[in-house]
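Bench notes, bay 3.
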Amino acid sequence: MNQTEKLLMGIENILSVASNLVQEVDGLKLVEEECQMLKEKLFLKQLTLSEQYVFALVLDGHSVKEMQGILFKAENTIKTQRRNILQKSIASSMKEAIDFYKRTTQTSSQNFTNYHQEIFQKLVKTS
């Protein structure tokens, strides 16, 4: 086997390894997306239905007073639910909770929008 043949075999070997690495990276990307979806589901499952309604309204930028009118709940009830959302998201502010939620749903922003709309539609139906 001459030098050229050895070089060609080496190049084929390198290309084969590179191809395998590309496949591994693709597999890892899928795993990462699945992990992001699980984080989203975990966050949402922690919230009660009432907390989900409040959170959907927070995402729309509603104040506590506006939420009172929409949800027909006392101010203290809404504040308690907001506090519970903060605790469950390990956030110190509602902005931080929203950022946390958006980070956990970054690979599925369409799911975020769909879920938000779904919660808001349920809210409108029950009002």
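Next record in the batch:
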Amino acid sequence: MKWKVISVILFVVFIGAAGWGYTYYQTKQVDESLQTADTEQLATILERPLVNVQAEWMEKAVEQYDVPSVLVLYEHGGVLTDKQWIYLADLMTFEEFERMVKAGAPLDVSIPSSTLLEGLYSLNDEPEKWRLAHERIDVAFLNTHPNILIQAVYDGNTEAFTDLIERMDTEIVPYEEVAPVVMEMNQQLMLEAMVKKGYQPK
């Protein structure tokens, strides 16, 4: 009986040591993949049994501006903070952004200083990104974040502004906040979109 107990204990210890060794080896390989930005190797490792994405891996990829690795990590269960997602969305190409959204990344994201949508309106960015976001985002989010409209004005993105205002509920559009900015920026087409929505200039 005594030997049976000892055998069981030794077996458990062996399994534990083997498991720790396996996990350690996989972690080292992930670190190497992130250092070399080898997303193919990274994806292969993450497909292996008992390999779960660790928060520090995602942090490292974000710090290195390594969008492809972030995508792979996210698709395998990694998590981004709202701040990280807003930051990365601005850096991504449309194809990368679309891939993130298809993987489940939320669009109704905001932090005290900004929303994800506000970072997509630059005329230097690909318009397909904000178009995709507008199509998929809940209108309720637009209704509770009127600052999104104002950012479109500052970025001079008439197409995005017009699309936004058409999607928002008429009674929610913050005309008193938006109108002065539109006038100041001399955005005639935006003013016309507001009038079409129901705004009456004073």
